[in-house]
Write a structure and sequence with these properties.
Elements (H helix, E strand, L loop, with lengths): L2 H13 L8 E4 L10 E4 L9 E5 L10 E4 L13 E2 L4 E5 L3 E6 L7 E7 H5 L12 E7 L9 E17 L14 E10 L10 E10 L8 E4 L10 E4 L12 E6 L1 H13 L11 E11 L4 E16 L9
Parallel strand pairs: 2-4, 12-14
Antiparallel strand pairs: 1-17, 2-3, 4-9, 5-6, 6-7, 7-8, 8-17, 9-16, 10-15, 10-17, 11-12, 11-16, 13-14
Length: 319
């Protein structure tokens, strides 16, 4: 894709204007530049969406759209101070993690999530059934569009691995238990009150990095492995490239066909009763790290956009 065409596509997504006769593009999530800060979750996932602190970059006018989830961490960012560098980088940091946002045109622009498993786990590797630290951003969709109303669900993102180091010895490391994973998940949720699956959902995953593989493979199974697992079906598509060379990698693609395939697979395996696209929508997304192993790792994200292309002739009212 040329730079001109790429810039035009991003402009259309950001503004929600018509991209041609009968086509209407709507952004599904807000503050894709992360300028408004974050609502910090508690380390204890049982507290749900309770906010431990608002990380607003010391600007009281900021109203965060994103939650910053730090489940199972030993080091909450609740006491961290906002640091502002001379080149416009804003960050919150403690022993276990670092979150950086830069809104300038510098190479540091975008979001960097760094997690320090060596501090989280110390000298003991994780054991079967134990929780693991997360560092990810999460947001509910600003509008809900039934899947059958859409021609596309487009994802655009640039990602770069900054570093990833396994801190476990060969005797400790078990690839069945230990990894560092950076991925994006959508919640594909039933939005029809009174339907057979009212409120039910499955996880649709787009993997970027998995320490165990050069290119992350597809994955289909129930969400399990820890006490707070949802038990819902996970449908993760294959990765597209290796980040291990630490170069920038860009995804710009329509995910709708694979989202629909995931809905069918969830039904086939008994997690969903009825796979009607009329009943389901992209309801939530999260992006970031899960580290069920002792890894120190960081990834930088730029130019994130998620948009819905409505079918011609349909109005854009949310259900």
């Amino acid at each position: 894709m040329s730079l001109l065409r790429s810039s035009l596509c991003l402009l259309l997504v950001c503004t929600g204007i018509r991209a041609g006769q009968g086509t209407h593009i709507e952004p599904l999530f807000a503050d894709m530049q992360f300028r408004q800060g974050f609502l910090l979750s508690h380390a204890d996932s049982s507290k749900g969406r309770a906010v431990e602190r608002i990380l607003n970059f010391d600007d009281a006018n900021n109203v965060p759209a994103w939650r910053l989830c730090q489940w199972a961490t030993k080091y909450s960012l609740a006491s961290a101070q906002c640091r502002r560098s001379t080149d416009g980088v804003l960050s919150y940091e403690n022993e276990g993690k670092r979150v950086t946002v830069c809104n300038s045109d510098s190479p540091n622009r975008g979001l960097t999530l760094e997690i320090r498993g060596s501090r989280e786990y110390g000298t003991r590797a994780r054991k079967q059934g134990e929780s693991w630290p997360h560092l990810l951003i999460e947001q509910d969709a600003t509008r809900l569009f039934a899947l059958d109303e859409l021609d596309a669900v487009r994802l655009h993102i640039r990602v770069r691995l900054l570093h990833s180091t396994n801190r476990m010895s060969a005797g400790e490391y078990d690839p069945g238990l230990h990894a560092a994973q950076f991925q994006l998940f959508f919640i594909i949720k039933n939005i029809r009150p009174g339907s057979a699956d009212d409120g039910n959902y499955y996880w649709f995953g787009v993997p970027f990095y998995d320490s165990r593989h050069d290119i992350p493979p597809a994955y289909m199974a129930a969400d399990a492995g820890k006490k707070d697992a949802t038990g819902k079906f996970i449908y993760t598509i294959p990765g597209e490239a290796s980040l291990k060379d630490r170069d920038w990698f860009t995804i710009d693609r329509d995910l709708l066909p694979q989202i629909l395939s995931g809905l069918q697979e969830a039904t086939k395996r008994g997690y969903i009763k009825s796979p009607s696209p009329h009943d389901y929508a992209v309801a939530n997304m999260n992006l970031g790290w899960e580290i069920p192993g002792t890894f120190d790792a960081a990834i930088q994200v730029q130019d994130l956009e998620v948009s819905a292309t409505l079918k011609a002739g349909l109005n854009d009212a949310a259900p």
